[in-house]
Amino acid sequence: MPWSLLYENLEQTVAVILFGIGFSILLLQRNLIRKIIGLNIMSTATYLFLASMGYIQGRKAPIVTDGVTDLAAYINPIPAGLVLTGIVVSVSFTGIMLALTVRLYRRYRTLDIDQIALLAKGEDMA
Amino acid sequence: MSRRRSDWEQRPQARIRKWYKEGFLALDEEIIDHLTQEPRHTHLQEELIEAQQQAESSRQHDRALALERMDQHNMLIWARTRGRKAISRFHVVLALALGLLMIIFLLDTVAYMPRFGDPNAPGANEVSRRYIEQGLTETGATNIVAGMILDYRAFDTLGEATVLFIAASAVLILLRIDRNKDGSPVQELIAAESDDQHYEPRNDRILQGSAMVLSPIIFLYGIYIILNGHLSPGGGFSGGAIISAGLILYLDAFGFEKAGRFFTYKTFMWVSFFALSFYALAKAYSFYCGANGIPSGIPLGTPGAILSGGLIMPLNIAVGMVVACTMYIFYALFRKGGL
User: Fold this and answer.
1) Is B289 left (phi over 0), alpha (psi -120 to 50) or beta?
2) pTM to 2 decimals?
3) Given A71, A80, A96, which is nearest B167 (Cβ)?
């Protein structure tokens, strides 16, 4: 297994580890805000991964200067567009999740997901 | 065997079962019973014995129930103290193992990925070749990424703007505090407003002074980034975010009354409506005309000039307006539950 490539793909390795950290936070934390932070770390890791996939050694950002439209002059523009999509979606879901958290807090006066589940179950029983 | 008739014994299923179990005899007896309409045994003694048995069995039943309840109670106590700890510890271990497993699998995948900065990576295929080599002549935008997301992949960007608008609407539904029908504020709104007045500084001199200097500059910078989106790094999303930052600074410094003079729910609604429908109509037009050699009638201009790139600059403006409104309304709703 070419594990030595991990060092050469340092950016992607870091992105993957960040993704795992975010995923573990999502699973481990009971606080809803921390869960949302974990999800945002995961999306940030995805952006890092995409941006590093698009980079090509020694080339410039894809903005045409002096009329040069040679493929060998610019990096891959597609991952940049994908990262843009990712950022927008991440902002949207963060907003909705925080709003839901605010509503849950107003109702149950706690951010602990286990306590909220217990209280909701008690409400169902009653 | 008692012969007390209950509703169950009258049912056809029970009869068939009985017939199946005990042969024809039982059914025959029952038929005879039914026909003669008089019971063949006297029941008194049997009923007495049965009542005794029932009392005995109910006592046993009560004891069993009590024991079971005690077991349940003990289990509940265990679950509330040590059990919960054990389960949460197990959960932590499981979560860590899952996270580590995921990292290991993904690292294994990364080890097979093309090297960082490799010019022959499979991602740099004919699609990006087309964007880079033909993008300038086909879209007229110097910024190839802007030309890509607002011309080749404009449908995707319309989806993004719509996602933002839907998110803003969802947050509005979740967090907005409505007034009563006669316009008087509800209790919740009064509480939110007093909370806001308590925690946010009013008429802070330093904040107001710096906002007075900074927010025009921030607005100008955001507008510059939006209008220059097809020439330099930037575009509707980043410019809109900068403009919304200026709006939020203004709101923080001068309060909701002054900000409400130019930004209300109606502003949000109409700006989003016009921006999104303009975007959709413009792209609907250029889906039919403007590709595959069909002339669209929209001049592309000289690349590098501010009025170039065809539809890209108006689309950037539309996206920027939607983003600015969305961010501002997120902030207002999370702060006070309304504008």
Assistant:
1) beta
2) 0.77
3) A96
